[in-house]
């Protein structure tokens, strides 16, 4: 069980035993593996891969490297369910899905993260609500779950600590892309949250971390197979990130869109389709609906009745946010707002979604270094969907910025991110839900 010998086995293409993988995870936590040894192991896994048994063992070892939440005696009113997305631009689905599932009888202890690269983070979005707390102890988490049925919070330091250290090492050693390491990183935190079922949203397209369909499909299959192999029922939906999801990108703007969605003031069609599909699959996995048609009807009733919106308001208030988040969030608005005009008449045929996400970051809505402060007010709203026909000068989107100079730069970036075809051009829309990957 010496670190160099374990590394040597994987370096030479051998399969690691469960005991060797456990030793690796334990060494990450207790410090008996140095950073250089952990980096060597990560590179060996990247280059040599892992078989299914190894990937399950790594997920389990990292899950049990710290606390594992057990809700069996907590008196919760329904099955413990969750959703994970691989990240995109304008992806605010978690903000609606969690209260929708809660309104349908599930319990959602959603352990979320912050922004990464060109994508926004769910925790950063919710912190746009004044007073909202993402760092809570287990007693507070349990109280919020009992009262609201859902709680979107950050991971504690004791949840999957092996993954926390390994991810930091992967981030600086060009080993982030390893499929088994991505899989174990995602699933170890979800398994440690004590879930009974999980739905996964794997994004594909130029705004996703896995832009190619083959890579997205491989990740979805790996996540589902390893989750099920580790005893967690799971299903993955591969969804399109070839354009902004919804019509906003930016923290406070996305929270406002989520609230408008929950209250029925407006529901952008693609965003609604993704949210409803993910919610329905999760309700089926959790045994709360007999089939997808019944699950979709149940989720739609939770929206139409106002029950989902009420659960969101309860959650926000219980976690320190505004007492009436549905009416007045108190998030404030950016001081400079201006439309981005179409440079010529035409049809929006394509978008560089990654560039749009980076433009939000350049406005102050992202971090270039850990610890950077985010300006939650900035971003884009009224983003026009692909296929929209515009006359010259009509708005493609609206910029929300802290200064006129920043607004000008963002306007230029967004205009460059869109491809305009001649009027009369036909945009062939891609399905927003591309594929469903279920247990084999």
Would you write up a description of this structure?
The protein is of the alpha/beta class and 440 residues long. It has three domains: 3-49, no CATH class; 81-328, Nucleoside phosphorylase/phosphoribosyltransferase catalytic domain (Pyrimidine Nucleoside Phosphorylase, Chain A, domain 2), CATH 3.40.1030; 336-421, Pyrimidine nucleoside phosphorylase-like, C-terminal domain (Aldehyde Oxidoreductase, domain 3, Alpha-Beta Complex). The chain has 16 helices and twelve strands. It has helices at 3-11, 18-30, 35-48, 52-63, 93-103, 122-126, 138-148, 161-171, 179-192, 213-229, 251-263, 269-285, 292-304, 307-318, 353-365, 404-417; strands at residues 81-85, 108-112, 150-154, 197-204, 234-240, 336-341, 346-351, 379-381, 389-390, 395-401, 418-421, 433-437. It has a four-stranded mixed β-sheet, with helices on both faces. Strands 6-10-8 form a three-stranded antiparallel β-sheet. A three-stranded antiparallel β-sheet has the order 9-7-11. Strand 4 (197-204), helix 10 (213-229) and strand 5 (234-240) form a beta-alpha-beta unit. Helix 1 (3-11) packs parallel to helix 3 (35-48) and helix 9 packs across helix 10. The longest helix has 17 residues, at 213-229. The model has no long low-confidence stretch (mean pLDDT 94).
């Amino acid at each position: 069980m010496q670190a160099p010998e374990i590394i040597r086995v994987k370096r030479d293409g051998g399969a690691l035993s469960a005991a060797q993988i456990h030793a690796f995870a334990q060494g990450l936590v207790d410090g008996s593996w140095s950073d250089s040894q952990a980096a060597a192991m990560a590179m060996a896994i990247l280059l040599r891969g892992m078989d299914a048994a190894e990937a399950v063992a790594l997920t389990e070892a990292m899950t049990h490297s710290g606390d594992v939440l057990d809700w069996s005696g907590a008196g919760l009113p329904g099955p413990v369910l969750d959703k994970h997305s691989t990240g995109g631009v304008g992806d605010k689905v978690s903000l609606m899905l969690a209260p929708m599932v809660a309104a349908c009888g599930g319990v959602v202890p959603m352990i979320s993260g912050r922004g990464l690269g060109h994508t926004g983070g769910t925790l950063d979005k919710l912190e746009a609500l004044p007073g909202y707390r993402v760092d809570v102890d287990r007693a507070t988490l349990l109280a919020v779950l009992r009262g609201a049925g859902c709680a979107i919070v950050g991971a504690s330091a004791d949840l999957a600590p092996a993954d926390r250290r390994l991810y930091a090492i992967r981030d600086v050693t060009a080993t982030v892309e390893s499929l088994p390491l991505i899989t174990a990183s995602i699933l170890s935190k979800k398994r440690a949250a004590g879930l009974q079922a999980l739905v996964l949203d794997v994004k594909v397209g130029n705004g996703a971390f896995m832009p190619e369909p083959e890579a997205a499909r491989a990740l979805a299959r790996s996540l589902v197979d390893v989750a099920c192999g580790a005893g967690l029922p799971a299903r993955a939906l591969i969804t399109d990130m070839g354009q902004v999801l919804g019509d906003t990108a930016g923290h406070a703007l996305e929270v406002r869109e989520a609230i408008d969605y929950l209250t029925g003031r407006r529901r952008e069609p693609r965003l609604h389709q993704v949210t409803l599909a993910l919610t329905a699959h999760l309700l089926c996995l959790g045994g709360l609906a007999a089939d997808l048609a019944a699950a979709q009807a149940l989720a739609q009733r939770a929206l139409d009745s106002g029950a989902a919106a009420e659960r969101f308001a309860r959650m926000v208030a219980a976690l320190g946010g505004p007492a009436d988040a549905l009416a007045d969030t108190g998030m404030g608005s950016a001081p400079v707002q201006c439309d981005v005009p179409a440079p010529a008449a035409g049809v929006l045929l394509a978008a560089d979604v990654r560039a749009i996400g980076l433009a939000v970051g350049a406005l102050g809505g992202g971090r270039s270094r850990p610890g950077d402060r985010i300006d939650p007010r900035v971003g884009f709203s009224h983003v026009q969907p692909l296929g929209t026909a515009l006359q010259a000068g009509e708005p493609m989107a609206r910029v929300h910025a802290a200064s006129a100079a920043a607004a000008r730069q963002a306007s230029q970036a967004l205009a460059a991110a869109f491809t305009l075809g001649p009027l009369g051009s036909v945009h062939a829309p891609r399905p927003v839900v591309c594929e469903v990957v279920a247990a084999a």
